[in-house]
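Priority: medium. Attachment 1 of 2:
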């Protein structure tokens, strides 16, 4: 099944997403944007934003976005359902909403313009990214209208079979934002990433492999003249900071026990795309 792209300009889709998140807040629903749109919303520098196109994130001339991906808390699922179906008049995807209930819901725009995908408490793909349970309890309140930059990075690093568009997202995130050892506004919190990876060897392994790919692709983009040497050095230095923090973070017994088995047994979850 081919991807269905949102048939509106990037700025219109951003504004519409912001309106939905604002209206959710008015209805006491904690809802945040994730995925490619979250990266785009955090990229304000015109030069860096142009890299979405210069690096052909989804191929030349194609729109950037498919649907509106969001996350909420499972304890608010009845409120989320009421918000989309009664307040916004979106149509529920009965199949997905019945099958996944408190894990994931999909709501279709009344005019069929796009769908809103709502994940609850966590993303469960190759590896888990937690928002509603330790160590991620209460993480949705860190930023607005998107998840935090730190969680966007984790969302990308967890992908076992990472593709070019997600690598481009990481390149843009590292170019636009600083990596710090603590949670600061509009920065990537290396200490939290280190903490998450310190308890999950499989996630740690794939995250490191993906950081290698970010450097590899960045170097290729520099050689092709799509980014400058300064851009490459900037990306490389931020990844170096992140890696230093990840390595010095004490690893749990769970991590150490799993590390002994290495790649001799599967260390990631196979991901099957839900048919819409």
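Attachment 2 of 2:
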């Amino acid at each position: 099944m081919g991807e269905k792209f949102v048939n509106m300009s990037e700025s219109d889709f951003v504004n519409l997403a912001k309106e939905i998140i604002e209206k959710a807040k008015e209805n006491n629903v904690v809802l945040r944007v994730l995925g490619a749109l979250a990266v785009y919303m955090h990229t304000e520098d015109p030069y860096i934003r142009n890299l979405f196109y210069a690096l052909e994130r989804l191929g030349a001339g194609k729109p950037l976005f498919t649907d509106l991906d969001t996350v909420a808390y499972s304890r608010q699922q009845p409120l989320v359902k009421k918000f989309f179906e009664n307040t916004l008049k979106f149509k529920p995807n009965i199949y997905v909403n019945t099958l996944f209930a408190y894990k994931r819901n999909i709501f279709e725009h009344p005019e069929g313009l796009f769908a809103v995908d709502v994940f609850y408490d966590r993303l469960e793909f190759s590896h888990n990214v937690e928002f509603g349970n330790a160590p991620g309890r209460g993480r949705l309140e860190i930023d607005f209208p998107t998840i935090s930059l730190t969680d966007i990075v984790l969302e990308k690093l967890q992908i076992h079979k990472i593709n070019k568009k997600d690598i481009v997202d990481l390149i843009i995130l590292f170019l636009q934002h600083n990596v710090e050892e603590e949670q600061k506004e509009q920065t990537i919190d290396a200490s939290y990433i280190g903490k998450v990876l310190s308890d999950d060897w499989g996630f740690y392994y794939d995250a490191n492999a993906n950081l290698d790919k970010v450097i590899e692709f960045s170097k290729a983009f520099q050689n092709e003249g799509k980014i400058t040497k300064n851009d490459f050095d900037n990306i490389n230095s931020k990844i170096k900071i992140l890696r230093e923090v990840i390595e010095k973070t004490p690893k749990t017994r769970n991590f150490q026990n799993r590390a002994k088995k290495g790649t001799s047994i599967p260390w990631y979850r196979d991901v099957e795309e839900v048919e819409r």
